[in-house]
Request: fold
Amino acid sequence: EDQVTQSPEALRLQEGESSSLNCSYTVSGLRGLFWYRQDPGKGPEFLFTLYSAGEEKEKERLKATLTKKESFLHITAPKPEDSATYLCAVSKGGSEKLVFGKGTKLTVNP
Amino acid sequence: NAGVTQTPKFRILKIGQSMTLQCAQDMNHNYMYWYRQDPGMGLKLIYYSVGAGITDKGEVPNGYNVSRSTTEYFPLRLELAAPSQTSVYFCASRTTSVGGTGELFFGEGSRLTVL
Reply:
């Protein structure tokens, strides 16, 4: 069964304290891995797509990386406005379904 | 450019009632989706559509129906509401490009409670 596991479930950081979120996956025929950000009471907002092991994408203080079994979302010198739940999802060939993880709730304290 | 618009934002239903969640997008996207998000769980795909007149079941379609008569609208119908359908429902859309498979644009959600 296709599965996406995110860890930790919750992470509390001080402003400026860098860290990483993990997304491990088991899926046959991976087509892509996606990161989303979700603010309370809002819909998920797309951040990154990763297609192959070794690929990296960056956006402001966020960098996403991909290996054959997991992806990391690195947050460098976070600010309070980075507080949100970060969702990881995977897609496989021949399917329109995205398999989502449960998310990591990030809180950045000033 | 409003993106994906969902109505209503909140609704309380009694067991056995029916209702329709509305979804509209103004980006001319062919692909549209309905997901539900339960507390502490990942989003689950209910139904999706690859274009006007074409719909297909997702992972958790039981108790729901959809239609897609135009590119812009993709309503989700709940028949005979049950407490298990208490959830937050998200409509999403994407472009047809191959690379855009997981690059979904989501609405702000419709929070449904069935009592």
Remarks:
- Chain B has a mean pLDDT of 94.
- Chain B touches chain A at residues 4, 31, 33, 40-45, 48, 50, 56, 58-59, 90, 92, 99, 101-109 (CB under 8 Å).
- The two ends of chain B are 36 Å apart (CA to CA).
- The CA atoms of residues 46 and 84 of chain B lie 14 Å apart.
